[in-house]
Amino acid sequence: MSDDLIELFGKFSLALGKIEQCKEFVFLIPEVRTNMVYAKKDAATRDDVLAVDGRITVVRGMPYAAGRPRLGASSHMARLIIELAKFDSSYRAGIDFMNNPAFAEWLKQYCAEKGWIFSVIDRSNEPEEVKEKECGSMPWKVAEAVRACGGVAPKMFYETGAVGKEPVTVLVGRDPIEVVEQVIEIAKRYTAKLSSQSGV
Prior knowledge:
Layout: H1 3-20, E1 36-39, E2 49-52, E3 56-59, E4 62-65, E5 69-71, H2 76-85, E6 93-98, H3 101-114, E7 118-121, H4 128-132, H5 137-148, E8 156-159, E9 168-173, H6 176-198
Parallel strand pairs: 7-8
Antiparallel strand pairs: 1-2, 1-6, 2-5, 3-4, 6-9, 8-9
């Protein structure tokens, strides 16, 4: 195994271990489940992107990787990180998690606090010819996220739901350890907020 692949798998495995130990992250896992990706430098296809085979699910109340990290295991998130890297090559890792209007509003304020660029993809603006093309939405979606925040690649973004599509949030970063540490902080902060509101 090359040094690049050792680094890829090593950082990914460390990050995955951190996620699996964070009970608060369970509350952010969407119905379609979560995936995390880490792309090789200059990744061109999904086979250049490491992801969790089978995604991250919930077992006995804790996040749990359904399969092992594998190159080519993701389609959607792999294509997303490849497209985003065309606008900012430092973004090689990403994770997706749930979205709803209240959470989106909280995330917007959280990003402002952190100084992160936050964006929204409005799927209602998606051209019909893009929708009809197999796997054709991703270049449009990423370009739309970048356009919506003034031509800069966002640190975090979400897309409004389309027919048959669950709305999800995406957080990106330089490597999976950075991304996981950030999403764990989000999970802990948001669940603490919910607990305080419910009086628990």
